[in-house]
Amino acid sequence: MKTLDLYDWVAIALYFIVLLGIAVWVIRKKQANTEDYFLAGRNVGWFVVGASIFASNIGSEHVVGLAGAGAGDKLPMLIYEIQAWVVLILGWVFLPFYARSGVFTMPEFLEKRFDARSRWILSIFSIAAYVLTKISVTIYAGGVVVSALLGIDFWTGAIATVVLTGVYTVLGGMRAVVYTEAVQTVVLILGAATLTFIGLDHVGGWQSMKETITPEYLNMWRPMTDPEFPWLPLLITSSIVGVWYWCTDQYIVQRALTAKNIKEGRRGTIFGALLKLFPVFLFLIPGVIALTMKMRGELHWDSPDEAFPVLMSNLLPSGVRGLVAAGLLAALMSSLASVFNSVSTLFTVDIYKKLKPNTPEKKLVKTGQIATVVVVIIGIIWIPIMANISGVLYEYLQKVQSYIAPPITAVFLLGIFHKRINAQGAYITLVVGFLAAALRIVLELVKGSLDPDGILFKLGDINFLTFGAWFFLFCIGLIIIVSLLTKSPSDEKVENLTFGTISEEEKQNNKTSYGWVDIAISILIIALVLGVMWFFNGK
Questions:
Q1: CB 3.0–4.6 Å: which of 328, 406, 486, 514 could bond 518 by disulfide?
Q2: What is the rounded (10 degree) CA torsion for 278, 8, 206, 235?
Q3: At what angle are helices 154-202 and 361-389 packed, to 10 degrees?
Q4: 90 lies in which domain range?
Q5: What is the value of pTM for the model shown?
Q6: What is the CATH classification number for the domain harbouring 478?
Q7: What would the pLDDT profile of 169-184 be if each residue is shown by its tens digit?
Q8: Per-residue pLDDT tens digits for 442-470
Q9: Phi (first) and psi of residue 537, to 5 degrees
Q10: Strand locations in 280-341 (E)
Q11: What count of Cα atoms within 13 Å lies in the side-chain half-sphere of residue 59?
């Protein structure tokens, strides 16, 4: 592991001075209140929508985790990175319903389609999901990156990331994140692309790399008997998680909702889907390159999650290494600041303000700050537990998402596709789903102390992909049965919010919101996804 030299530190310093300058410029230019800032986003074009969707998805924790999957014999995990087709579903299927309903948040949509109980449970569910996935994973990745780059211990790196993020948020504010995200994304993509090309050249090209790690390593399709990644549960569960993340998660959908109209929003999702094809080659392949170099005795790391920073520090030239390191750190802090803000907003607006509607603005801001601090502490406490669930960051992320996604995906999908689904069915499915997901996580943590022949051990030990597929089927059955056994929803709850209830006028509006170019590019993206699936078949 090479330490950063003078040129690297100069590059890092210059990069952060530029980011700070952007933040100060934004603060001085925009003196409006926060409400005005969030609502002003309703006038965004397709290019910014697509870039924002991609930037929101890719953080340095993503880079670290995906490279770790490539370096740790977890190549089937790349199926989560070729879900560009699911991003298309957001634009072609879900977005028209969200836009017609006039909502600004996903819990708000559930309240409009079902009732206030569903809004409550999704808000709580979302906060739990942010803590279990986004926050703890981002802090963990921060620790890995900072400790690997600066040569300090992991916990010092993790705590330093949180403190730096706090300072960044205070100095830049959330208004600056939108502008700085664009710079960070460009630096990350250029840096990762440079690393991929230099890395492939260093190992003697793709064919030479395949000979070292064997072609079987590059096969993402494992047999059904594979204990880790049986192909059919992998395909089903990754799709369920994809629909939850790309089509129903506030963090992503918010970007599409800021578009001027459905046409711009849909084109934004198509552009975002196109960009989503890049991570496989920019972040996963460097992990495989790092593994190749390790097998040849040219590189060393203790955990696969260190593959990207170790490869970067050894292969990139002085100065460029510092710039990419700065991009990693800045992207990490910006994504962490955004998540903190999302959790704070969900708790303050969707929970606290509903309980105490007459709370003054100042107290709401203070409540949001306290909520952020509490969530950060929980996220830090969760890190060692997280490491216990899975040794590879990206696999941990997909495991937890496989438990969280099924009930939410079932409620949104059937809520839109089936007008007979009612509030009772949605509420019961979300509550039971939330408890079942929590039970599975607990059983996975304590399964070592359980009776190997008992049902609790089997529930905790079953492959996470197989569990996710069966869990989704259970949620589908539960919401249908409960809905059919209870009263039908009123016309007000389904009109223009489900297929089969859309007015002729709305149908015509939707038809004019796309052209043959949109359809052609969408088909091309699906063809490219199938091409990547075929390419990684181990031959």
A1: 514
A2: -40
A3: 60
A4: 6-535
A5: 0.82
A6: 1.20.1730.10
A7: 555 445 555 566 667 7
A8: 888 788 788 888 888 888 888 899 999 99
A9: -115, 10
A10: none
A11: 26
